[in-house]
């Protein structure tokens, strides 16, 4: 009898363990794959499994122009530190977000940098995550059709953010202004003997450091999948990352705080109460070992040859795999609210620095 009970207990424990492993997801929004000998993308196209209550494309299309306009007015009325932010009109070509020419390759094999935009005392670098063959995470509609990818969303926000900051007398350096990679030929930029996405990140850091930027904001969207690769439509929320192991970590943390609070407020302004996942150290981005710094934020290491030289934060405002947040990311008013939120955070940061 005791033996039978023991067998039942063991079988039950194994079954529960397998169920946990299957249901556990992995963060994908800002994870960088650097260990493979050949390029391996951190977010592969998942096997789509529609959720019964997922928001449909028809429901999205039913949003009235009045609702969108009302949300826009609310977003435009927001202020930072008591100062009204200048919100320029969106350009006619804003929806396309396409550049007329992709920057040429330099002799070393990486792309020429985008010129700094605007005039003013302060300079901020904006890195729109992913680009080119690395499309980031993939949200699907309930029919299993790809509606957009992360690299497009990050770029749209970055370009609109640039225009807002320039209107507020802040200079902006973009690591990319179109859908392209900085290191398209997969050169070993960081010298670790491996050709992977870590080299793309290093190539961007080299451009950012060369620009002389005082501040860095990396834009990403989050994602979560089940163990079998299918999307997890339940996981949601807003997260901002910083690195605590830098000489300017106090400034990075303060900037991350400002970004996080403004993003939550911006999303609330268009009627979405985002789950607050908090301001988190970059070492805690992944629940699995090894714990490693994000390349755009971390100190020098075996895979970060030349680290960023300024306070920085990486933000993931929404989950592209979540049933509701994936739809939000396709709405222009939501992207506008996020761009304005980032602008407010950056302006507040520089105001605080100037006041010291």
Which terms would index this structure?
six-stranded mixed beta sheet, 10% strand, 8 helices, Aminopeptidase
Q: Would you give an account of this structure?
A:
This protein is of the alpha/beta class and 356 residues long. The protein is built from eight helices and eight strands, in the order αααβββαβαββαββαα. It has one domain (25-355): Zn-dependent exopeptidases (Aminopeptidase). It has helices at 2-23, 57-61, 65-76, 150-167, 197-211, 249-269, 325-328, 332-355, and strands at residues 79-80, 83-84, 123-128, 171-174, 215-219, 238-242, 276-281, 312-316. Strands 4-3-5-8-6-7 form a six-stranded mixed sheet, sandwiched between helices. Helix 6 (249-269) links the parallel strand 6 and strand 7 (276-281). The radius of gyration is 21 Å and the shape is globular. Mean pLDDT is 78; it is low at 5-11 and 14-80.
């Amino acid at each position: 009898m005791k033996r039978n009970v023991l067998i039942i207990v063991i079988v039950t424990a194994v079954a529960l363990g397998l169920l946990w492993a299957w249901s556990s997801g992995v963060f994908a929004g800002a994870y960088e794959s650097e260990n493979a000998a050949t390029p391996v993308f951190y977010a592969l196209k998942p096997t789509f499994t529609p959720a019964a209550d997922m928001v449909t494309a028809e429901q999205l299309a039913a949003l009235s122009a009045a609702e969108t306009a009302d949300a826009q007015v609310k977003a435009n009325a927001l202020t930072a530190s008591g100062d009204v932010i200048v919100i320029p009109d969106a350009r006619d070509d804003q929806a396309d977000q396409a550049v007329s020419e992709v920057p040429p390759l330099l002799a070393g094999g990486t792309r020429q940098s985008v010129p700094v935009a605007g005039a003013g005392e302060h300079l901020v670098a904006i890195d729109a995550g992913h680009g080119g063959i690395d499309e980031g995470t993939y949200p699907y509609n309930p029919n299993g059709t790809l509606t957009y990818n992360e690299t497009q969303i990050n770029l749209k926000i970055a370009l609109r953010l640039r225009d807002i900051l320039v209107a507020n007398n802040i200079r902006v350096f973009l690591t990319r202004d179109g859908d392209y990679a900085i290191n398209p030929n997969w050169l070993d930029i960081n010298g670790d003997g491996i050709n992977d996405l870590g080299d793309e990140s290093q190539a961007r850091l080299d451009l950012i450091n060369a620009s002389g930027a005082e501040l860095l904001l990396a834009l990403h969207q989050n994602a979560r999948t089940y163990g079998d690769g299918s999307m997890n439509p339940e996981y949601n929320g807003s997260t901002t990352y910083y690195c605590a192991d830098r000489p300017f970590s106090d400034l990075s943390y303060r900037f991350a705080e400002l970004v996080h609070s403004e993003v939550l407020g911006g999303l609330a302004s268009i009627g979405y109460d985002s789950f607050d996942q908090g301001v988190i150290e970059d070492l805690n981005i992944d629940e699995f070992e090894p714990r490693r710094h994000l390349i755009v934020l971390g100190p020098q290491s075996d895979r970060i040859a030349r680290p960023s030289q300024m306070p920085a934060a990486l933000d993931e405002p929404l989950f592209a795999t979540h049933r509701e947040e994936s739809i939000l990311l396709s709405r222009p008013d939501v992207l506008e609210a996020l761009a304005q939120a980032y602008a407010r955070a950056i302006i507040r940061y520089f105001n605080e620095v100037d006041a010291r």
